[in-house]
Amino acid sequence: MHRDRIGTSPLLPPQAFDVRFTHMTESGKEAREAEVSGGGPLVVLENVNKYYGELHVLKDIDLTIHRGEVVVVIGPSGGGKSTLCRTINRLEPIDGGTIRIDGKALPEEGKALAQLRADVGMVFQSFNLFAHKTILQNVTLGPIKVRKTDKTEAEQRAMELLERVGIASQAEKYPAQLSGGQQQRAAIARALAMRPKVMLFDEPTSALDPEMVKEVLDVMINLAAEGMTMVVVTHEMGFARASANKVVFMADGQIVEENTPGEFFTNARSDRAKDFLSKILTH
Ligand SMILES: Nc1ncnc2c1ncn2[C@@H]1O[C@H](COP(=O)(O)OP(=O)(O)OP(=O)(O)O)[C@@H](O)[C@H]1O
Ligand SMILES: [Mg+2]
Description:
Blueprint: H1 14-20, H2 26-39, E1 41-52, E2 55-66, E3 70-74, H3 81-88, E4 96-101, E5 104-105, H4 111-119, E6 120-123, H5 135-145, H6 151-164, H7 180-192, E7 198-202, H8 210-225, E8 229-233, H9 237-243, E9 246-251, E10 254-259, H10 261-267, H11 271-281
Parallel strand pairs: 3-8, 3-9, 6-7, 7-8
Antiparallel strand pairs: 1-2, 1-4, 4-5, 9-10
């Protein structure tokens, strides 16, 4: 069951975000936009189709994500946003088309697939930390097991990352002892520990209490400003305005519109997007 999140997510009118993100200068985004043009595409989806039985969930998806680019995916519930993310790291197979990461087609299975998954970090709505491992162990597990990093080195790097997301003091605790916002920041640190080429975020703040949303978004804004390539499913328009290079509007399994955040939120081209925005902006 997919609940309709319109009206239930902690959406604020756009002007509220202008205050919320005043610390975010335009310079990071501009610097990234300059970089973006240099590197060539990192993730390329061509004519991707996917079915769940009879249901055509992804319809002829073409999407190019450049290095350092931040793409926000937005759209009504059931439109295929999560499925799109899950196909990019092959948690879900596709039925047609191609997905290439850094020039390489997604492998079917085996070692190459594990390697690819390591290149694609993913942060979900629910935190998915291992409950019986400490935060530090959660962050070092992937590097030790998959990247074969030495334990001391993995722990050193993990502590740096936990420092960066502001929860170094929580390293020895278990997930259940942390707040939702802290757990989500731990999940981000865990994904970053694999040194991914691209980070996928699927509604990373929608399960959080409102007061914890900002601390997670701040981490993501910093990550974007540092040049991480990111695909972010979110209805947080403040994040989109502050950090996105482009907004992809998805509905009924299709990319209906790709636009700059500025244009999308003030001057959407498609009626479907205008209709969607009129609903979320009135709440
Ligand atoms: N494992 C599955 N098996 C069958 N159908 C599925 C499965 N996962 C998703 N679907 C269906 O595929 C469609 C797209 O779902 P998806 O989760 O990608 O949408 P979404 O845009 O992420 O929605 P939301 O905003 O609610 O998270 C929906 O109709 C959903 O019910
Ligand atoms: Mg979803």
